[in-house]
Structure formats: structure tokens, C-alpha cells
Specification:
mainly alpha
Length: 71
């Protein structure tokens, strides 16, 4: 099982709680590689986009802002 697969399992298990989902999503983003993060974003949008659209956007938009300020 890859780290990405493991993250997906965790997110599915915590999807009952928005705060817990956001916490785990942030942790996942910190640990994954760039390509895996792109795949995770697509997967999250497909799986949880209706339920957690704002959380998903907030977490992934943070990455963009951090990368913009670093370069």
C-alpha cells in the first residue's frame, strides 16, 4: 500500500467530522510528493467535493500560497 492509498483510507474513515477531515488532509499534504498531492486533490474533489468543498479548497490553496511566497 502506498502512502497515498493509506491517506485515502484515513480520509474516508474520518470523513464523518469536518475538523478531523481537515486536520488529516493537512497532514497528508505535508507528507506527500507533488504528483501525489495533485492526485489527492482530484480524488478528494471526486469523493468529498459536495460535503467538504470549502475545506478541500482551503487546504490545497494554502499550498499555492506557500509556494508563491517561497519562490
Amino acid at each position: 500500500m502506498t502512502t497515498l492509498d493509506y491517506v485515502k483510507v484515513i480520509l474516508e474513515k474520518v470523513s464523518f467530522d469536518a475538523k478531523l477531515f481537515e486536520k488529516e488532509l493537512r497532514k497528508a499534504i505535508k507528507t506527500l510528493l507533488t504528483e501525489e498531492i495533485k492526485e489527492l486533490r482530484t480524488w478528494c474533489s471526486d469523493q468529498f467535493g459536495k460535503m467538504y468543498y470549502q475545506v478541500i479548497e482551503k487546504c490545497f490553496n494554502r499550498i499555492r500560497r506557500k509556494k508563491l511566497t517561497v519562490t
